[in-house]
Amino acid sequence: MSRYFVALILALLTLALSTAAKERPVPAPAEQGRVVVSLDDAWSFAVDPTGDAPTAEWATGPPSPTTKKLPHSWTQSDRGAAWYAREITFPGAGEQVEAQLNLDHPVGALDVFLDGKPAAQFVGNGLPQHMRLQGKGGSTHRLALRLGRTGLPPTTRSRSIYGLGHISIELLPAARIETLGAVLDPAKKTLSARYRLFATNPITASLKLEVLSADGKHVLGHRTETCSLSAAGVEGEQLLPIKHMLCWSPRQPDRTYRLRVTLLVAGRVVDARELTCGACAVAFTGTILLINGQPVQLKGVRLPGGIPLIYRPTLEETLQNELELARKAGFNAIMADGSALPEEVLAMADALGMLVIGEIPCGEGGAPQIRATLDACAHHPCVIAWSWAGAGAQAQQIADLRALDPFRLILLRDGTRSRLIGPRDTTGQTITDLDLNLPDEMADTWWGQLRQIEEERQPVLVTGLGVAMAPSAESPSGSSASIRGNTLEGDRALGLLRGTVESLRCGRQFPLLGYFVRLPQAETLTGLSTRSGNPTNALTTSVAYNQPCAIFLRVKSPVVVAEQTILDAAIVNADRMLGEYQLYEVVTTPDDGRTAITSRKLDFTSKTTQLDLLKYLSFVPDHAGEYRLQLVLSQGDRVIASTQVARITVSSAESASLVTPSNR
């Protein structure tokens, strides 16, 4: 009997130890084949204000340099250039080596010089760039970079933004994982790992693929395969099932995974790579967008690619402050503007739960760089759609993208008639895509567009709700802008845009899928604050764009009226609002400027998408003159929504009533 109990105890101990082993941290590969050296420190920096400096001289040593650390950015008023230079040492110790220079997300014309001679040239479009170097390990060389104008076009940004992100040099193993990408499909609950392998000489290797939990403590799936490598390179793809896949969402941005890939030769680790990845389920029903089955209206900002002005100690801290401000202002999405968004922006969007429409930039000949973009960005769960501008059917491009990423949306922008293509679809649906700037004096143009949309009854996605920049006095050609985010002009323009947004949200004839705002030019990336952290008018006005609901008030106000007509007054709400609310009616009288406030109780007992407020209004203009009317909705001490102040002109004291559609 004692032997039986001893055997039972030993069995229980074995089970406990095996369970504990499963909960231990997954060990990292014991050996790493890559040696990566950061080149962020100690760069000589100089400005070529005209862009015409002799490259042969400046490549060996730009005059009057200062010392900078990367990432670094600065502004320039004209089409000059910036030069960065420093000494670099090839990794290794005397032997002939192959190294790679890694350049993070440059935007603009970038020329690379090694020891004073041209070595490479890139037309940066926001995607990472790489350059191969040959030489002796331990040898020292002079590296110089000439960066041309980058950032937004001059019609949108008055000062060009120059900048370089992180730069590193790495010793490439003889057998290595050259590229690694990941795309998760939440419908099939699979992770697709795509890779390219290389070996200087033909060799047989083992490739181990693992899906880990976000904290790296648990292996959720794994696969090992044998590969024959050569200098020609080998491309491969493996599907790894994730049995209980958790979808990333704006409310649960921590739902991610890690993909670890290890290359072994004769049982020894020669190279390893790791990616953080995730996905959310995206769908388009023809009228609304669904994220993980829940309806979402996009409220976003258009951001340029490249490195923004850095005003905090690091680039990451600057971007965190910028995107956290955008979240506080009510924005839930980002859309790239022209170039691919930097890795740091996408990583911050992942962490903060912001949705992203990713730009696929075009390469030489105007073709979208689909594979390069997906290799660099597809592992980020915040990306819900890919987009690029181009006319025509583009059937081949759609097929190429669908083969690599079957579950995200595709937005093909073609003027004002774009196509939104859902997952596992090839044709999509035509939508009205408004991508226009709004000068102060051209608000009527927008109303004309809106009337046309109402007649066509198509879904609307506003990809560019922006402020047109007026030419400044110092630039008669119109190549720079004078409206800034913290000026009266910029605030007035944003006020007009707010009215347009409310009009779109009140459309009974068409669904608004969302809107993306180009905020007026300011010192920082989004224009929501100054570099010192002070909020701009753009911040307070953006909150008005993104209220949880909108109160819409349209007032007919001709020059001379005997009776004033309110055409429409309504609450439009896309969310569920239950409970008791107060509707305040704020009226300023013409005689003494006094303000009278009346309130009505509104009790929402079910989901309300539109509520007619005309029957709740009590305002009666009993004097001639100009009245000012504002509607405010609150719950407790929290303001939920408000209108702008509407001016109501009454030309005769005989006007004893307010004409509305309900009492006409």
Give a structural overview.
The chain has 664 residues and is α+β, with helices and mostly antiparallel strands. The chain folds into four domains: 35-171, Galactose-binding domain-like (Jelly Rolls, Sandwich), CATH 2.60.120.260; 174-277, Immunoglobulin-like; 282-546, TIM Barrel, CATH 3.20.20.80; 551-650, Immunoglobulin-like, CATH 2.60.40. Helices cover 17% and strands 41% of the residues. The chain contains nine helices and 39 strands. The strands form nine sheets. The protein has a nine-stranded mixed barrel with strand order 23-24-25-26-27-28-29-30-31. Strand 7 (107-114) and strand 8 (117-125) form a beta hairpin. Helix 8 (488-505) packs parallel to helix 9. It is globular and about 95 Å long. The termini are far apart.
Q: Could you provide a short overview of the structure?
A:
The chain is an alpha+beta fold.
Give me the CATH superfamily of the largest domain: Glycosidases
The CATH level-2 architecture of the largest domain is identified as Alpha-Beta Barrel
Query: Unreliable stretches, pLDDT < 50, 5 or more residues?
Result: 1-32, 151-157, 469-486, 558-562
| Major pleated sheet | 9 strands, mixed, barrel
Please, what is the average pLDDT? 79
Total domain modules: 4
Ordered list of secondary-structure elements with their pairings:
Elements: H1 2-23, E1 35-38, E2 43-48, H2 55-60, E3 66-68, E4 72-76, E5 81-89, E6 96-103, E7 107-114, E8 117-125, E9 129-136, E10 140-147, E11 160-164, E12 167-171, E13 175-185, E14 190-199, E15 203-213, E16 219-229, E17 234-241, E18 257-265, E19 268-277, E20 282-284, E21 289-291, E22 294-296, E23 298-303, H3 315-328, E24 333-336, H4 343-352, E25 355-359, H5 370-377, E26 383-389, H6 395-404, E27 409-413, E28 417-421, E29 429-437, H7 443-456, E30 460-466, H8 488-505, E31 512-518, H9 537-545, E32 549-556, E33 565-573, E34 579-588, E35 595-604, E36 610-612, E37 625-635, E38 638-642, E39 646-650
Parallel strand pairs: 23-24, 23-31, 24-25, 25-26, 26-27, 29-30, 30-31
Antiparallel strand pairs: 1-12, 2-3, 2-5, 4-11, 5-10, 6-9, 6-12, 7-8, 7-10, 13-14, 14-17, 15-16, 15-18, 18-19, 20-21, 21-22, 27-28, 28-29, 32-33, 33-36, 34-35, 34-37, 37-38, 37-39
